[in-house]
Structure formats: structure tokens, C-alpha cells
Amino acid sequence: MSDIALRQDIIDELEFEPSIDAADIGVAVENGIVTLSGHVATYAEKITAEGVVRRVKGVRGIAEEIEVRPTGAHRTADDEIAKRAIESIKWSTSVPEGAVQVMVQKGWITLSGEVGWWYQKTAAADAVKGLAGVTGVSNHIELKPRASAGDVRKRIEDAFRRNAEVEAQAIKVDVLADGKVRLEGKVQLWSERSAAERAAWSAPGVKSVEDRITVG
């Protein structure tokens, strides 16, 4: 697919997504690498826009440079954002009570603390990213390692085999020190690469994933 055709597919997909106002989002494509620019009113729109682009066939990579510019009803004071964020996390059944701390500066939320699973870490971010006035989220929550390297590798490889999107034989898994996982190999679609990375993050104790999987 040519870059021109891919760019048009991305624009069409962004305009088709009802939760995004794509009028001020710019799209550039070079060799399958997509650069998103412009601005949106909420952080949730920014995250959704990136997700929309990821699912378009032919995308090999994304450089996301969209700015969040809250306007009107989307403007909220930092202390109010912090209160709402704490309450939202408290209501999330996936996040252990009292495990996460919240700091807000100019609409940007920084999460800290310690949990045992990656899904708990992401659940905390998911709980706050849609709040009015949020311009960004930095997730600094740490993960406690709870499994051996061999167990982590087996869990990831088993997850690959169960996942219809992932060609398990095409991906090599290395579990390094301090909860770091390295993925290497080659897949046909960007969605396969994302699915493999999600599977790696789902293993207990994984603190970081170095994704060296190529698409093409």
C-alpha cells in the first residue's frame, strides 16, 4: 500500500470514530510510519486516536505528537482533578486500595505506588485518563516481581499459543534481570505486534517490555 492511500485510510478511520473530533488532527505518513499532530480537547481523545491508527492495516509505526488543549467545560483545576482521580481509582475493583498515589500539575496526572500485576497498573491509568481537564498521564506505579524468570517465560509463551492474533513460533522471548522482558522476531501486522506485547505485560512481575518485533 502506498503512503498516500494509507494516509487516506487513517483519515477516514479517525473521522469514522464517533468519540473523536478529528477536525484538528493532522496525519502524515512516510514508509508506513504515521505521525499524528494537531490538538484535541481531552486526553481520552488523544489515546483513542492512537488506538484507531494502530488498527489500520499497513501501519508500521506511530509518532504521536497530538497536544491536549482543554476548553470550556473540559477546563478543571488541579485540586479538583486530583480529588476526582483518587475517587476514580478507589472505585476501580482492579486496583488494590491505598496502593496508588496521585499528583496533578497543570492537568498532568502522575501516578506512583506499588502493585503486583501489570493489569492493576494499567487499570489505575484507565480510571483517570477520561477525567475532564486531564492533559496527560505518567504512570510511575512499580510492579513487585512474584515469579521466576523461567515461569515468566513459560507464561508468556503459553499466552502466545492461546492468542489467535500471535504467531508464537515467530517470536522469541528473553526474560532479563529485574522483571525486564525482551521480544524479538517478525510479524505481518502491527496488531500482532501489539497483541504479543500485551501478552508479555500480562505475566506476573514483568516491569518492562523491550519490543524488538518488526512488522513487514
UniProtKB/TrEMBL annotation:
Protein name stated in the entry: BON domain-containing protein
Organism expressing this protein natively: Mesorhizobium retamae
Alphabetical list of PROSITE patterns matching this protein: BON (PS50914)
BON domain segment(s): 2-70, 77-145, 148-216
PANTHER family registered for this protein in UniProt: BON DOMAIN-CONTAINING PROTEIN
